[in-house]
Design brief:
Elements: H1 7-21, E1 22-24, E2 37-43, H2 50-70, E3 73-78, H3 86-98, E4 103-106, H4 111-123, E5 127-131, E6 142-145, H5 148-162, E7 167-174, H6 179-191, E8 198-207, H7 212-225, E9 231-234, E10 254-258, H8 262-270, E11 275-278, H9 281-298, E12 300-302, E13 306-308, E14 312-314, H10 319-330
Parallel strand pairs: 2-3, 2-4, 4-5, 5-6, 6-13, 7-8, 7-9, 9-10, 10-11
Antiparallel strand pairs: 1-12, 11-14
Length: 333
C-alpha cells in the first residue's frame, strides 16, 4: 500500500493521467455542472469487517476529492449489510439502481447470487464495478482488487520461508462461497508443487463466518484438535482483529496472513505472525469511486477490465510506517 499524495496533487494527477489510463467507449461525455449530484452506492460484505470500514473511508475520501475535480456533488450511499448476506447485497444493488444511482460498487459475498442483480442494475442504467470479490460473469464493467490466485501463492511462499520449507500447515479460508477466497485457497494449493517439503493437513482448509471471534475460535479449535499443525496460511486476517486470538507461544506456530490493518499489526509486534500481506483496503473504496466517476461522467473504462492491486509484504520493521499511514488516513473519520 502506497501513501496517498496530497489532495491537490492527486487532483492534478487524475486530470493529467486520464487520457493515458482510460479508453473512451464512444459517445459524448456529459458536461458536469457545479450543482450536479451523482449518487453512488457502496456495498461491502459486512459492516463489522474492518477491511470494509477502511474501504468506506476510501470511498468517502474519493467522493470529496474527485467530486471537486469533476465539479459535481458525489453522494455515497453505504449499503453494506451488518453481517455477510449475499441476498441483502443483491437487494441493495437493485434498490440503488431503482433509486437512480449512477454507479454501484460491490464486494460480492456470492458471485452467483449477485450476478443477476448486477445485470438488472446495469439494465436499469447504473454502472457497476466490483472490488475485492468479483462477479466476472456479470455486466459489471470493471473489477479492482487483488489477483487472488497470486495472493494464495504468495501466502504459501511466505509461510514456506517461515517454516524453512517443511512442515504441516492449515489454511484459514473465510466464507466458503466467496469467489475471491476460493481462488486464494486454490492458489495456495497449486503453489504446493513449488514446496515439496510442505504438507497441507488432511481436510486442512477451514471455512468460517467472517467475524473475528468466529475466526479465532475456528483456529483455536483446529489447533487443539490437530496439534501437528506447525503453520497457518490465513487467506484473510479475520482472527487478527481481536486480541488473544492465537493461543500459543510466539514463534511455536508460524503464521502468514493477508491484510495489515492497525489491530493486526500487534501480532507482528508480539511475534505471533511472521508476515502480513497488505491489501490496499482504503483504495478499494477510493479507486472504485474513481472508476465509477470516470465511467459515469466521461464514458470511459480502464484498458483492462481487471485492475489488479499488488500485495505489499509487511514485516516487523515496517510496522511504524504502516501505523503512520493508517493514523493519517483515519484522521477524525
Amino acid at each position: 500500500m502506497t501513501p496517498r499524495p496530497p489532495a491537490v496533487l492527486r487532483r492534478l494527477v487524475a486530470l493529467l493521467a486520464l487520457p493515458l489510463l482510460l479508453v473512451a467507449c464512444g459517445g459524448d461525455a456529459p458536461a458536469a455542472s457545479g450543482n450536479e449530484q451523482v449518487l453512488i452506492g457502496f456495498i461491502g460484505k459486512s459492516q463489522g469487517n474492518q477491511v470494509f470500514q477502511a474501504a468506506h473511508l476510501g470511498a468517502k475520501a474519493a467522493a470529496e476529492e474527485l467530486g471537486a475535480v469533476y465539479g459535481v456533488d458525489v453522494v455515497i450511499d453505504f449499503q453494506t449489510p451488518p453481517d455477510e448476506d449475499p441476498a441483502a447485497q443483491a437487494a441493495a444493488v437493485e434498490q440503488l439502481a431503482r433509486r437512480g444511482a449512477a454507479g454501484i460498487a460491490v464486494s460480492c459475498s456470492h458471485a452467483e447470487t449477485l450476478t443477476p442483480a448486477i445485470d438488472r442494475a446495469v439494465d436499469l442504467g447504473a454502472q457497476v464495478v466490483c472490488f475485492d470479490s468479483d462477479a466476472p460473469a456479470s455486466k459489471r464493467f470493471a473489477f479492482f482488487g487483488t489477483d487472488d490466485l497470486s495472493c494464495g501463492a504468495q501466502v504459501l511462499d511466505e509461510l514456506a520461508a517461515a517454516m524453512d520449507g517443511s512442515g504441516t500447515f492449515a489454511i484459514l479460508a473465510g466464507n466458503q462461497a466467496a469467489p475471491n477466497l476460493q481462488a486464494r485457497v486454490e492458489g495456495a494449493k497449486r503453489q504446493l508443487a513449488q514446496h515439496p517439503g510442505m504438507t497441507l493437513l488432511d481436510d486442512g482448509v477451514f471455512f468460517h463466518e467472517e467475524v473475528a471471534e468466529v475466526a479465532a475460535e475456528t483456529v483455536a479449535r483446529a489447533q487443539s484438535t490437530h496439534p501437528e499443525i506447525e503453520g497457518w496460511a490465513f487467506v484473510g486476517g479475520w482472527p487478527l482483529f481481536t486480541a488473544g486470538a492465537l493461543k500459543w507461544e510466539p514463534g511455536t506456530v508460524k503464521v502468514v496472513s493477508v491484510d495489515a490493518l492497525l489491530p493486526q499489526l500487534r501480532y507482528l509486534e508480539s511475534g505471533h505472525v511472521e508476515v502480513l500481506l497488505e491489501q490496499d483496503c482504503f483504495a478499494w473504496g477510493y479507486r472504485s469511486v474513481d472508476l465509477l466517476l470516470d465511467r459515469v461522467l466521461l464514458n470511459a473504462v480502464p484498458k483492462e477490465a481487471r485492475v489488479v492491486d499488488p500485495l505489499t509484504p509487511v514485516r516487523l520493521a515496517d510496522v511504524p510506517a504502516v501505523k503512520a499511514r493508517w493514523t493519517e488516513w483515519l484522521g477524525d473519520g
